[in-house]
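Thread: Newbie trying to understand structure tokens

Hi all, I'm a second-year student working on a class project, and my supervisor (Dr. K.) asked me to get a predicted structure for one chain before our next meeting. I've only ever worked with sequences, so writing a 3D structure as a token string is new to me. If someone could post the tokens and maybe explain what I'm looking at, I'd be very grateful. Here's the chain:
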Amino acid sequence: MEKNFKKDYMAKNKEKINKNLFWICAIFVLFFNFSEGLIKPIMAQSGSLFLLPGSESFAVGDNFSAELRVDSAGIPINAAQTAIYFPVDKLEVSSISKNNSIFSLWPKEPTFSNLTGEISFIGGLPHPGFNGEGNVITINFKTKKEGEVNLSFDETRILADDGQGTNILVFIKGAKYFIYQPATIQKESEEKVFSYTHPKENEWYNNDSPRFQWNLIQAAKGVSFILDQTPETIPDTNSEGLLKNKNYEGIPDGIWYFHLRLEDEKSWGGTIHYRIQIDTHPPHPFEVTIDNAGDSTNPKPNLYFETQDDASGINLYEIKIGERKFIDLMLAQINPFSLPILQPGNHLIIVRAIDKASNIVRTQTLLNIESIEAPKINVWPERYISGEEMFYIEGIALPEVEVTIFLKQDNKEIKKWQTFSNGQGQWFFSTKELIKSGTYYLSAMAQDERGAVSNFSDSRKIEASFSGFILGNLMITFKNLILILILILFLGITTAIYFTYKARHIKKILQKEVKEAKDSLLENFSALEEEVEKKIALFDLQPGFSEQEKKICEDVKKSLQSAQESIGKEIKDIEKELK
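---
Reply by user tm_fold:
Sure, no problem. This is what the structure looks like when written as tokens:
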């Protein structure tokens, strides 16, 4: 159970823990800086983080490695943090290596999850830090399923070794991989040129080292090829030999075409053209402009930002507001971008522009939202007897705002109520809600129709006592207890009267029914007796009537008489009980 609790706690507070660890690392390296007196200011922000290879093709089931590298652009650094996301249906991480890493301190060891598709770490090193381009970690992947794979970054930091922990990150380069079924690629390779580094001709890649490959027909004697920026170029007839592939490095950004001809025993064949699109540079740096309509309390200001990309063009923007996650913005959602309602205080706004080759440029700004005027509590019960008195408070605030009243005990919210101020800013509230005995503190805050809120008012102390008793979470006042007892007594008397009346009514009905039954029974028995006597008299007049038959007739008479007496007795007993 303890392990599950720790696991849940870590999952819910992961981002906060990561930030704390990151700043612990920063403070650690700052200690070295201060201790040696070597604090130096940073004049520019131009650090970058990127994956190598930036684009590549792999077969299903392949194992490959991707290096996460940092470029400090001439500025010494001493810490970095990021999270990388990958699609778990197409990739899985087999291991992460710190070999040859520029970092020697790991406040948060490199970790990965093949369930959530996340890789994260916090690394650092003491003064004088690191300057240049170097490896941070090496991620070992295994491919699982055919398709395109994009590796993206969450919030990333690169801290300068300047004694102030300046985040110099500007440029992030993601990665785009293509996973294929080997049989499919082989079939395509027989028909045309294929590039494992740039597998789709109409997509942009941030890899400037393209590789091309093709199959040779059996009768091939040579190949001729050229890479240029003209779509229909035809290579010359000077053979390069029986090559099956060609690698290039450091190709400038832009749209390029690889042209290939094959020579057989008879002649040179037609030209095969293959297009690649390269963009290794991020979009241009940009700034974010805040428009709060001249009101520093505006909780929902507009943001204006836009940039350009020279090669592939802008694909989308990402924005992160305070502690929230990055959200994607299409181009139509900017200029302006309307922020959600924000609370008073400072909010760090990070905007990232991403081009079609997954190059990212980021900028940030600090948004300060001031609070509206806080309400005041002028009347409140310093001593309050719960269950006997009305809980009444009043105060003043801005006109026509919602006032939320908080009752707290030991910094824990016990009650919360809402009311509204009138046109003169006066507000009132009363309730008969029950409150347990104890010391409480009352405060209030206001919110206007725009959603702008105030800070809390000054708190007011209340000593409360409860007139009643408590059963668990149930509170019963003495007044309510008396009312409950009176109600129980009333219900008891009413019930007794009802059942007494009901019993008497039923008794009368039974008496009437018994009398009617008695009369009917006596009448029927008399008729039956008279009829039997007639029949017996008729038998007596008949000749040959034996002694035995006479005896039977006498017995019948006696039985009838006995039955009549018995039933009469029972009826009398019932009548006696009903009196």
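A couple of things are worth pointing out once you decode it. Residues 400 and 421 are 5 Å apart (CA to CA). Residues 1-12, 23-44 have pLDDT under 50 and may be disordered. Feel free to ask follow-ups in this thread.
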